[in-house]
Every structure is written in C-alpha cells, then in structure tokens.
Amino acid sequence: MAKLCWVSKGHSKKREYIIEWWQKKNNKLRRKKYKEEHPVPIPQPERRKNKNRFEEGDCKKIPLVIFGDGLKNKGHVRQLKHREGLGELLLLDINEYKALKTCNSCLNQDLQNPKCRRGDDIRKIHQVLKCSTCNIFWNRDVMAAKNMLLIAPSIWNGQGRPNVFKRQIATSNVVASSHSGAVLA
Questions:
Q1: 94 contacts 151 by C-beta, under 8 angstroms
Q2: Half-sphere exposure of 183 toward its Cβ, with a 13 Å CA cutoff?
Q3: How many H-runs (helices) and E-runs (strands) does the chain carry?
Q4: What angle do CA 66, 69, 71 make, to 5 degrees?
Q5: Contact 103, 138 (CB under 8 A)
Q6: How far apart are CA 87 and CA 90, in angstroms?
Q7: Strand, coil or helix: 128
Q8: Dihedral (Cα; 51, 56, 59, 62), 10-degree rounding
Q9: What is the DSSP string of 88-103?
Q10: Pairing of strands 137-139, 128-131
C-alpha cells in the first residue's frame, strides 16, 4: 500500500476519506490485475454450450476414420469405437497386408531398407524404405497410412481391395499328401 504524507494537520475527516478512496482504488487495480493474470476457468457446462460454434456448416458429414488391424485393442481405438456407437463417426478397419511393402507413388513392391555404416558395423534402417523404381525414400508408417487411404475408398464403394494390395492365389495343381505317403482326400 502506498504511504501518504500530510503536511496539514487539520481536516481529519477529509483525510480519512482520501485514504479510504486511495485504498479502494488500489484494491480495484490489484483485483483487476489479478483477474487478468489468473483467468477464471470456464465451467464444464459452459464449455458444452460453446460446442455448437464449432459444429456450424454441414452437419450431415460424418468423419471416416481408417486404421490398420494392428491397433484393434488399443485405448484410443476403444474410444473411437465408443464414438462410432454414438453416431459421431465411422470406423474402417483395414488389413495392413502389403500396405507396408508397396510404394505409394508407383505401386511397386520392390522396396529396400537403406543401410547405415557406423565403423565396421553395417545396419539396415528399419523405419525407412527406398523405392527402386522412383528412388523415393519413404517413412514406413507414412507410406502405410497413404496406402490405406488408397485402399479405403475402394472398400467403401464395394469394389474390394485394389489388385496391388490383394493376396496372390496359388493356381498350381498341388496335391496335399501326408508324411506317410498316403494321398489325402
């Protein structure tokens, strides 16, 4: 609190009034400064009222979330499944077969891990792949996500997986037999 020095010794009531006024003014300034430095958090019901501001536009659109089958029982996927049950989004679970091994730009499956040399030790970098056709270096996860984005619309439209990402069916006439030599029927 600021100190006041008085030269005159009279008018005690006026002096008390001035001191009270000065204290109130300082308290108001302190309260205002405190409120600016420490904003009051918005209560949870008030936050929900503001939710409508972010939902302006086309409410008929529902987001489509695509993920690989390796994430089936993770915590965030359970949360997404819960939101799908509420009708907030659609989930599409895609088999990751060949999504990790196919170049996204040329759809070539001839990818190699680049090698890194440290002294006499030569190691492959697992997370990075290089396409031998178009010479693009790919992060394995980014390439898989882009390939899943290629696969998802064709599955969603009922056309199935693109041929590049399908499993090859064996067409040879191989007869299964047991180890004893007897032919199985």
A1: yes
A2: 3
A3: 4, 7
A4: 85
A5: yes
A6: 8
A7: strand
A8: -70
A9: S-EEEEE--TTTSSS-
A10: antiparallel
* Matching residue, tokens 């300082």: 26
pLDDT per residue, tens digit, the chain (185 aa), is 455 555 555 556 666 666 666 676 677 777 788 778 877 665 656 545 545 544 555 566 778 888 777 666 667 778 888 888 888 888 888 888 888 889 988 988 888 888 888 888 888 888 899 999 999 999 988 998 898 888 888 887 888 888 888 887 766 665 555 565 555 55
* DSSP per-residue letters across 19-70: HHHHHHHHHHHHHHHHHHHSPPPPPHHHHHHHHHHHT-S-TT---EEEEEGG
Written as one letter, the residue type at 164 is: V
> Do residues 144 and 68 lie in contact, with contact meaning Cβ atoms separated by under 8 Å?
yes
Q: Is 90 exposed, middle or buried (0-12, 13-18, 19+ CB in 10 A)?
A: middle
Q: What is the pTM of this model?
A: 0.55
